[in-house]
Amino acid sequence: MDTQRFHPYLVLLALVAGAIAVVVGFSGNPQNDLGLFFSAGAEAAPIFLIATLAFLALDRPRLRPVVMVLTALFVLGLALVSWIFSIAPWFSVMDASEFPIEAAVPLLAGFFLASGAAVLCLLLYSMRLRRALARWVPIDPENFVHTTAFVVVAALALMPLIPLLVIGHPPLVDLIGDPSMSFNLSPSEAAKTNLYGLVWTLGGAFLAVGLFVKRSLPETLDRLGLVRPTLRSFLFAVAVGLGLVLVFGVVDHVIVAVWEYFGWYVTDEAYTEALFSAYLTPVTAVVAAIVAGVGEEVAVRGVLQPRFGILISALVFASLHAYQYAWDGVLSVFLAGLVFALLRARTSTTVSAVTHATYDLVLFSIMIMGIGGI
């Protein structure tokens, strides 16, 4: 163990904070700002906890079974969420005395798809399978951290797509209109939640590549592709972001035209505005754009892309939007992800983050101004 890179007390602090975030996040609605801060980390915490323990297990083989169990629980938990979301249209009638018969097929389909995806993910613990896949995926099949990451990434790429496969539309379409569900945040609550989430995402990304265990801070920044932007690179990133708004205005029209021609479900514009209603003020729009641009780019392009390549990282990026967008939106996000990935490969994560934030800010501004059809 490199004592210059290994900081046991900071590792312990990170593990305790992550554990608190998981507990608070799954215990219900937070009652104060401290509770809100920890609950905002509930999504990132399981991943960086597993990653940190996996790095520790490189020099402590006895930890490996613990990491494998936690990883399996993460995969099964994500499978359970996707299975439940597969019957989202029937949530409002689940309390009725009789189970709605029309929900039986989606219930079974979601169960088998989620179970099958979980099995596929856990099969990646097979050395033979990893060696075969290593021909196309840039991993070391014998590296325990790479193995653990591969299982987690496979789950993130597959599980969120299951509800979309089963019900044909994003589950949040049904949940956002369910009065029993709490989706209504005030703009200030939305901004605060997003900023807290960004803190956890960035901290989690740093830990996920080995900070405090295997990498120093400069090495971590280099691994994530984070560099200090120059004025030239900043202006370039902003210009690309503005250009992407125009390009994807055309791309999205083409995708929607194809979807409508075949009679496929298209992501509804009114639903999208309702979904992002808390962010349609100037301040919250800026916060949301920065949080999404920086957080998603550091997590996906910074953490995942150097290890798993452009296609897999773009697939994960698109899949993570499948709870909120239909297939047309997921395809658009995938294509945008490819552009951000190429920017990351040719420049840095900093440039792709500024580009992403600019792109999102313009889209939020368009929604605020009520300009449709773009």
Secondary structure: elements and pairs:
Blueprint: H1 8-25, H2 33-39, H3 45-57, H4 64-85, H5 104-122, H6 127-133, H7 144-158, H8 162-167, H9 172-175, H10 187-208, H11 217-224, H12 231-262, H13 269-275, H14 282-319, H15 327-346, H16 349-369
Largest β-sheet summary = none
From the N-terminal CA to the C-terminal CA, the straight-line distance is 54 Å
Spans of 5+ residues with little confidence (pLDDT < 50)?
Answer: none
Order of helices and strands: HHHHHHHHHHHHHHHH
Description:
With 374 residues, the protein is mainly α. It has a domain at 225-374. The protein contains 16 helices and no strands. It has helices at residues 8-25, 33-39, 45-57, 64-85, 104-122, 127-133, 144-158, 162-167, 172-175, 187-208, 217-224, 231-262, 269-275, 282-319, 327-346, 349-369. The protein is globular, with a radius of gyration of 21 Å. The model has no long low-confidence stretch (mean pLDDT 92).
Key phrases:
374 residues; mainly alpha; 16 helices
Quick take:
By secondary structure, the chain is mainly alpha-helical. It has helices at residues 8-25, 33-39, 45-57, 64-85, 104-122, 127-133, 144-158, 162-167, 172-175, 187-208, 217-224, 231-262, 269-275, 282-319, 327-346, 349-369. It is built from 16 helices and no strands.
